[in-house]
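Morning!

As promised:
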Amino acid sequence: MYPKMKRLYKYIVLPLLLIGSAALAQEKSMLDSISLGNAFGMGANINPSAGSELFDKSPETDITNALYGQFSGLLVKTGSSVYDSNQSKLKLALRLHGHSPIILVDGIPRDADDLLGLEIASVTVLKDAAAAALYGVKGANGVISITTKRGTDSRLKVTAKYQYGLQKMFRAPEFADAYTYGFLVNEARSLDGLPAKYNDAELFALYSGQYPYAYPNVDWWGEVFRDHGDNHRAQFTFQGGNKNFRYFAAVDYLKEDFLYKKANTDDRYNANHYDNRLAIRANVDVNITESTAMKVNVMARLAEFNKGNYSGRIEKTLYSLPSAAFPIKQADGVYGGTSLYGAINPVAQMRDSGQKQYGQTKVLADMLLRQDLGMLLEGLSVDANVAFDYIGRLSEDATKEYRYSELVSTTAAQGDQMYILSEQKYYGIDSKVVDFSHWFSNLQMKFELRGRVNWARDFNKNHLETHLAYRQRSWIISGRNESSKTQEILGSISYNWNKRVFVDAVVNRSGSAYLPAGKRFNWYPAISVAGIISTEPFIKAYASAGMAGSDDDLEHELWRENYVSGKGYYFGPKGGSSSSGRAESGIASTSLAPERSSKVTLGTEMKFFKERLAINAEGFLEKRDNILISPSNVSEVIGLDLNEQSLGVQSYKGVDLSVAWNEQKGDFDYGVYANGGWLWTKVIDDGQAFQPYEYLYHAGNAVGQKYGLEVIGIFQNQMEINNSPRQTFGEVRPGDLKYRDQNDDGVIDKQDRVKMFGSSTPRLQFGFGLHFAWKGLKVYADFQGMTGVTIDLLDSPLYQPLVSNGTISKTFMNREITWAPDRADLATMPRLTTQENPNNYQANSLWYRDGSFIKLRNLGISYTIPKKALKLCDATVSLTGTNLFSFDNIRFADPEQLGAYYPSTRVYWVGVKFNF
Amino acid sequence: MKKLYQILTIALLGAGLVACESLKLGDAGLSKAPETSGATLDTLFATLKDADKVLATAYYYLPYGLVSDFDSKMGGDFLESITDHFISNKHSDDDGPNNLYYSGSLSSNLTGSYRGGEAYRFGGGTWSKNKNNTGSLKLGEKDYIVVRYAWLFLENADRIPDADPALLAQKKAEAKMCMAIAYANMLRYVGGVPIVDHSIIFNEEMNFPRNTFKETVDYIVSLCDQAAPDLPWYVSANEDGRMTRAAALGLKLRILCFAASPTFNSNTKFHPEADEYSCYTNYDAARWQAAKKAADEFMAQLLSYGHYSLEQAVASDATKGIRPRDYRLAYRKGYFERGSSEAIISIRKSNSGDYHDKHIDVQDDYGSGGSLNWVNKFPWADGTPFPEDFDWEDPKSWEEQPFFKKSADGDLQVGDALFMETRDPRLYENLCVPGDVWKNNQVGPNYINAKSPNFQEGGTGFLMMKFVLQQEADRTTPPHWCMMRLPEVLLNCAEAYNEADSGPSEKAYTWVDAVRARVGLCPLEELYPDGMTQEEFRNALLLERELEFGFEEVRWFDMVRWGLVEAFTTPLKKLVAVGNKQNNATSFTYTTGDAYPPRQWYTKWDTKWYLSPIPSMEINKGYGMTQNPGW
């Protein structure tokens, strides 16, 4: 710390604090006036928000599930379920107007993963330019501000809840049995011009199951998964306090057992899949003196995560391993396997590869101290705010290898009798000793410091509030140059006249350590204005304009020239050793800057029929520049590769609309809501090099636009192939896809790839739902969906059957007819092939599909037994289903997850909650 | 008491903040510049040893003629495949000769697998690094990379403290020579190019207009002239491979001869669209005089300092004297071995022998091979021409076998019989002829009944032997690309004299005869007892270059600079040989035929092919490069 700062403390801050503490006692507790979260008192923009009831409705472990379709403009995207080093099995991504927003928990950037539904008090989605400018170089992607529950000036309130969740697979694939597989492999090989893999006798053996070791038939999916997964959860909250001391505390314990079968067979280790988590929170508010208040939030998250010690995703194996590949175990009890497939027996991997265990500790703490300085100047106060987060993960592996064996068989017929001639081959070893190793696999430390001066005053009908704030943030991850640091100083002014006319202005000077010294700081100004045109019905119009930045894509050293090892050169006599070379690592980025958003928002909020009908409509225009791209339009005479440059430009525009009707009539309470967000995106400059045809340029198309070859049919015979433009991706045979020659040059190559279908970003995403309550009974349903989104069937392994010794699914065969000479006119898909077939399996119009869907995210019913009936407490029994069904064009799989991942699930929940 | 408690609390909190170690406000809060993961310019030029690593990188990107992973030239095929010497039948998707040249479909708008199949791809997709430090394959040529590293060295070399001034000057001269080779490579394929006179940084204005043919030639010559005085005539064995004064003077002579040749040095433009970027646009006899001067310069140095000489044959069996195979081995030593006494410029990027498999892959099952047209140019072993009217289909016409004869002195053993080569020994080192053994002592699969069933159609009867070599034991030494050998310098000298003096002088005869004598051929004077005209001598020189430099990237440029339209347009022939038995055939019957595939050039010749097209992608970057005539 600098001497200057020390003096500041000694002579200014400390005396002020002392004066303040001596000030007169106030009537109202200071604690009531301090809000965490986005506390800048801006009033012009309408920021959609919701309270804790949102999280009562959605019992899912990951709180992001509760946000599905709840806010117009905010898209919750299902990512890919991974059951691996990450404990979260279903990774959800949030996209606000096409970008990943920053999530603030009580004003501090944190992960949504860190939160429990029961501790959330409110969620606010900030998507206007003024709010973005408040967060400077972290604000361009929008902000989701979450506040947690706090103590109240009342006696202790305790809640206790137990919840059970039962998972069932949603649209699981069904793979072909051994005979079907064998039959189709023969067909595919014949279409490839290859000899059959199985002769008739062998096919019969696959069919009859007579020789389960030589000609096995294994349902691998059924061997790995059981028909359900489940979890148990117990939760307690404690809330209470008095005028000067308040607390909220929560304890949550979760034990999750997944869809995988129990796998423990060896008493030296535990190979079962499970996830145990314990979460504790304590939020404490204290009035230290009459004019000094402190808020302290501490969260601890402990997690233990366990699985078999195999690497990669077992689902990947399940989607590719044929049922006839090898038996689970051979007759002598050794695991099945072959030299072709290697050690990938899924059952052996689950049970006999050892154990992988992670223990994760997170401690997230923050503290706010406010000193009221009303005695100096009415309405003046200062805040000091510190946050420290620690995340550490320990790993332990128990490693074991297993032996596997292959029965190399041939058949011979003698008269009517079939004989199997086989030879047993063994691979690998059965580890006698389990090897243990452990290490510290991850360490993160986040530190944030804030100081703020607040001044708010009312002059007659004028309200003026102004803030001057300083923030600095560092995020240190183990490893060289992995840390990220930012710093901001900002001023804001909010004014309103009689709560009818609003003007907010922000100016932020914000810096990122990714940039070279001297170029780190940028200005981000914004302004918003609003007016209430009428109060009955309520009509408010608002507008904002401003800039914000994002350094999320940047990394260290892009601006720096440095030298790395180059290629060696051989001077000297025969066989002389090489002189090591030194090469530049790339031309430094001179254009490096944080991505910049310049955004204009225009909106209106209206309430009719005594506020029963609420409408919020908002439109925005946004230009994003300084996007980090790899330009390919730079001269080769430079003679060196370029680092990425901040030269990309994109534009976004959109409309967000939400409509809600809520009414209460005596014991009746009901409501419906609907909201939607339309988004249009456009690439303006992506540094693409010269293209010989206009249609090859990306500029002007949507961000995430799909491109591909246009399929115009399936080749019926060799003559048709000979008479068509040459397709250059690999060997072409009858039954393969035929493409349009877009430039009429007689050759089908990359230059024939055109823009087709839409983008991976939906044009419209929406949610709607309803609730109905009568006395203690409550029923609710929430739907969410999207349209104008393109997905690619090639993401699903089911649509590349038999390729690379893979398997084939009944799911695919029941839905599609593959080309073969005898059913050519019925074909919906190209021929089966056992080869890689780059001609067919590449981006083209056959594989793209409309990925639109409507899903029922929540369906719930609950009944509350009042306290007077139970004496001690009231009790709520609830029954909820999540992801119960989906309307879409895909039908065979979750349209949001086509790949070989942990299955999508629908979950049934039972809960009982007591309020003491 | 209560107040004291409050004061203490606040004081403690304040002190806690002050004590926080990591708390730094202001710009210091963003911390100092992060630790760099590599060396900086300062550390690199702290010692000459480190700086030499930058120079090594310039060397590394010099042009390489062996088929390798270092570039994608011709899509992994030989430049010889587009001359009249060799026909490629490599049917891979990225093969340059078949997809671009034979079919005539080379253009400035190549994409996909065709990109990089050109003989020379100027620029091309600059790939940018992404976060994982990976990028797409760079298919353009590497010459500007050499230029960049050479400039980096030149710009920073003076920062090296306490460097021996003479050594530093020598290293700088090496950097200039690397650059001269890179520009010479560009000049020969595309004509004039932008001359970059510093290492470019990204935010400078991208304005690098194309320099004219003349400016580019002058620049290369000036680089050679600047470098020559600071370079030693030759380097010690341990430094072998570094640039020498011989390299500087040899390159200068090569480029002056190239530029003075009629395609570029003529009052008639080689193509209607030819301009000052692709040729001189006029004829000037002084250009040959300049070449002659450069020849004198080289020869004077050679006379004073020696060191370089042609590898001479040594009798492997003293009782039998020097036999054809002994000449052949001397010739091989000259082009193949690192440190040979005739290597003037030697490029060595790798010690790996995998070039060998790549060379075999190019032709093996694909049935590529040398043309009969070329084979017919190899004279008999004594140097007398092979008859033009040789009737391959009539056994009586060749009493003497066209390739081998039975001889007790021979050292090719087939079955019980010994055979001896009957033609110029260099034929056997360049191509495997019917009856010879090929890689690892296998029978050359170049007669019909010796081919395995999976051989593809298209073989010419002659497989490439150069660099492939017969025996595993022949290839134990690491390869190099001998970019320039003493014989080329000698023949360039002879050419410069013949053109500058309008006819051969005694000196000129001496130089050619030295090259011929090394492989046992008679002097030219014996073939032309009445003396030679300028044109006869010129043709004899061109022929000698064909015999001496097969697969050494000489023929293409001879065809280009002398405008040998006939060489481009004469359909190439193959020889179909049938052995008297399947293995170890001892005699053959022959028929000739048209080599497959035919070339569009036979019927639609266009002089635009002399220079490579510039990719439109590169021109459209708008920094000043222009298109070559006809593309």
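The CA atoms of residues 77 and 624 of chain B lie 31 Å apart.

Hope this helps with the figure draft.
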